[in-house]
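Re: adenosine monophosphate structure - here you go.
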Amino acid sequence: MLNFVLFGPPGAGKGTQSQKLIDKYQLIHISTGDLFRAHIKDQTTLGQKVSQLIADGQLVPDEITIAMLEEEVDKNPQAQGIIFDGFPRTVPQAKALDAFLESKGTAISGVIALDVDQAELTKRIAQRQLETGRVDDQADKLQKRIEEYFNKTVQVLPYYEAQNKLTKVNGTGEIENIFTDLVAVVDQF
Ligand code: AMP
């Protein structure tokens, strides 16, 4: 299986590039953010539990996130591979993912970190907020998400670096050019 993590701060282009990558490689795409938003929209018990945290830009506790992720992977036993988008965001999540995939006889092939500077991220998210109305894209909530990213999520990078699985890709510029760079990395996995 070709399993990889697309990693990057809010607004790095993970969703946009994932869509292009799944079309090219016939993979499935699991975005924990999308899954949470669907639960909130459907007003499930899980959705009710996490909606305030998400609206405030805080991370959902690991236990809840990991259980939801594993359930989603189990729904796709025929998958040729999975792009993980927005997961893992903490080291315990990364360890849980490794153990879970190992129990299925597979593993993460690689991790791609999209690099985008702060000014560009703020600009893109302001635009996305206008287009989608995502409450957690509003300026005050966004600040919290960026803090969560720099306090907790970046710690996942050394975890994968130690496994020699990390590649950084410049996430600024034309979508097609970034995609070409991503494909060159994925083809090495
Ligand atoms: P995203 O669409 O990936 O930016 O995720 C939106 C929000 O969902 C995040 O700000 C978190 O509140 C929550 N979330 C998504 N993925 C995770 C995760 N792996 N761990 C904890 N919280 C998450």
